[in-house]
Every structure is written in structure tokens, then in C-alpha cells.
Write a structure and sequence with these properties.
Elements: H1 3-10, H2 13-19, E1 29-30, E2 42-44, E3 48-50, E4 56-57, H3 59-67, H4 71-82, H5 100-122, H6 133-154, H7 157-179, H8 186-189
Antiparallel strand pairs: 1-2, 2-3, 3-4
Helix pairs in contact: 1-4, 2-3, 3-4, 5-6, 5-7, 6-7
Bound molecules: zinc ion.
């Protein structure tokens, strides 16, 4: 259980709001402390939602906003005020070893999506438009990346292993940097 789950298990947004001085009517509506409210527009139940200013969230969001705290501080305050004050989080589960095949797949897919878009954006708009170098290069890059992705999903075990070794030997790091760029150019891929 996380500190957030613990805090939320202790108290609802309505209970917390009433504890800290808000008064809800029988419909669960209260004057909203987050805007200048003259008719109760804050709905309080498990969560809270203001129909006036749009503030919305769970009890932790409410606390954070109401007391100007971080979410972590808000959760801790709820545990102090409504629980026994002590919270020992579960030991974090050991990080999973990164799966290289999955990472290859993810990066290639991101590239594929980006290049597909570039291709579409640079495509000739009519029969009379010339095929620009930019478009031709976008097509080449796209086909190359799709080829890599296909091999990764449909190749033999040996082909997949070879490709993963190739990609994880620095190529993926390069591709990840390329993905940060506004426009991917030919030299980025070839
Ligand atoms: Zn409001």
C-alpha cells in the first residue's frame, strides 16, 4: 500500500472537509473554499467537485489545495489527523530488469509513428506536385524502420536476437535522441 492509498482509505473528501470546518448541507453541498462562493457549489462525497470553479479531485487533492501542500504532505497530514500517524510504506518492489525486446519495440514504434506523420505532411498534394526529396527520404526512413519492426516481431529467434543486440548496442540511444527532435532527417536514420 502506498501512502496515498493509506490516506484515502482513512477518510473521504467530505469527512475531511467537514473536519477542517466546511459545512455540507443535506445534499452534500458546501461553500467552495477555492473561489468566492455564495451558493454552495462544492459537492462533497468520496471525492469533491466544484460546479463553480471546476476544482475536482480526491481527498488528497482536496488537502493539498486547502492547505497548500504537496500531495505527499497532504497524504501525510491525513494520516496524522485521521490515522495513527505512522505509515510505513511497503518495501518497494525491486525494479524489473528492463526488457530489451520491449524497449526496441517501443522506440521503433515511436519512430514509425513520427515518420508516418512526416511522410503524410510532405506527401504531394496533387498529381501535379513534384515528389520532393524530403518526401522521398521520409518514405525511405519510414520503410527502413517498419522493416526493423517487422523483423523484430516476425523474424526467426536468431534474427530477433541479432537485431536486439544491434539496436541495444547504441542505436536505440541514438534513436531516442532523434525522437526528441522536431523533425527527423535522413542523416538521423542512415
Ligand atoms: Zn469552487
Amino acid at each position: 500500500m502506498t501512502i496515498y492509498e493509506k490516506a484515502k482509505s482513512l477518510v473521504t473528501a467530505r469527512e475531511a472537509a467537514e473536519h477542517y470546518g466546511l459545512t455540507a448541507n443535506r445534499y452534500g453541498m458546501a461553500l467552495c473554499p477555492f473561489h468566492d462562493d455564495h451558493n454552495p457549489s462544492l459537492k462533497l462525497d468520496e471525492r469533491f467537485h466544484c460546479f463553480g470553479c471546476g476544482e475536482d479531485g480526491d481527498v488528497i487533492d482536496f488537502m493539498a489545495k486547502f492547505f497548500n501542500l504537496t500531495l505527499h504532505e497532504a497524504a501525510q497530514k491525513l494520516i496524522n489527523d485521521f490515522g495513527d500517524g505512522e505509515f510505513i510504506p511497503d518495501a518497494p518492489s525491486p525494479p524489473k530488469p528492463p526488457d530489451p525486446a520491449q524497449r526496441c519495440h517501443d522506440v521503433l514504434l515511436d519512430l514509425e509513428v513520427r515518420l508516418h506523420r512526416q511522410k503524410r505532411e510532405t506527401a504531394p498534394q496533387s498529381m501535379d506536385d513534384p515528389i520532393t526529396t524530403e518526401y522521398a527520404q521520409n518514405c525511405q526512413m519510414y520503410d527502413f524502420i517498419v522493416g526493423l519492426a517487422d523483423l523484430l516481431s516476425g523474424g526467426t529467434e536468431q534474427q530477433k536476437a541479432d537485431e536486439i543486440a544491434y539496436l541495444t548496442g547504441g542505436v536505440l540511444d541514438h534513436y531516442e535522441r532523434v525522437l526528441q527532435k522536431e523533425v527527423i532527417v535522413y542523416d538521423d536514420i542512415f
